[in-house]
Design goal:
six-stranded antiparallel barrel, Elongation Factor Tu (Ef-tu), domain 3, 399 residues, alpha+beta, elongated, disordered N terminus
Amino acid sequence: MGLKKEANANVNPTHVAVDRKRHLNVVFIGHVDAGKSTAGGQILFLSGQVDDRTIQKYEKEAKDKSRESWYMAYIMDTNEEERAKGKTVEVGRAHFETETTRFTILDAPGHKSYIPNMISGASQADIGVLVISARKGEFETGYERGGQTREHVQLAKTLGVSKLLVVVNKMDDPTVVWSKERYDDIQSKMIPFLKSSQYNVKKDVQFLPISGLLGSNMKTRVEERVCAWWDGPCLFEALDAVEVPPRDPEGPLRMPIIDKFKDLGTVVMGKTESGSICEANPIPAVTEFVAQLQILELLDNAIFTAGYKAVLHIRAIVEECEIVELMQQIDLKKKKPMKKTPLFVKNGAIVLCRVQVNNLICIEKFSDFPQLGRFTLRSEGKTVAVGKVTTLPTVANNA
């Protein structure tokens, strides 16, 4: 799963229908070995964002690298440098939902070399999950002067992360075995430091034990036979219960810019702290449309017919798509539609077809807005067709 940073914008409900679930950005912070990516990957698995087949694939990849316990982290750590070193480098991003809240997970790097990237992640966050390793020696390494646990906490507070869940991870480790004494020792050492970092520990901080690797005390409460002394909430319950100060959607628009890059124009990323962004004429969001395609050059032995699959590129959108119906072929000499509906077409053909994608995409008809109505189809790294969007569904979602 490719993970990128995103802007968090409020949409004025007087203009468009909105999802009434609240949305929160959650940044995972902590020392490099605390298990942030593993915990994030486990959350996605437990909330149904990753299927068993994908998990099995990651288990095999991790085993091949002799890193069997890292497989859950592979869900969040997607590039080869991260998988080889077992360290998050970029700020990973993923999504999951509970009954009341839509969450965006921001997995910030823990290694000191990537502190600027961690700052980028924390600056987008509404709440922080500070992951601490309970394993003997690892908590001490992160907590000692100069350790990343301390620096991350101080940076998070400075960057406006006012609410903190402190999850004591790796409670299943052989050096811990869900020890209340170890948990209490970590909590007693962290509380004075959190207070010195200007956190209101009683109001804004909550501690809880978990096992990110096993998923214990995450979606459901840990079983009594595993941990008889814990009677508090699990991680999902704690996340659902966090209250953050509301932003003022009627205030002036204020959006600190986090990053920018050039991609057919300048694209900026930020977090809307006040005000609203809305469109008087919102762009259609669809999973199906009709397009006129010109077939350039198909791969060897490929047949362009209903069921043909390729990768659709339109502006910055990249989505897998399927041709579900060939509707008309254009006679290249007469420039008119042929009477017979084609079963398949060859290189050079121009054909009207119905296209489906897996996820909602924002596009326009070429006749209305050419920049958002032209696209390419690629297969195995090669452009096989170019197209124009001719018709959108009469009932389309609005972004």
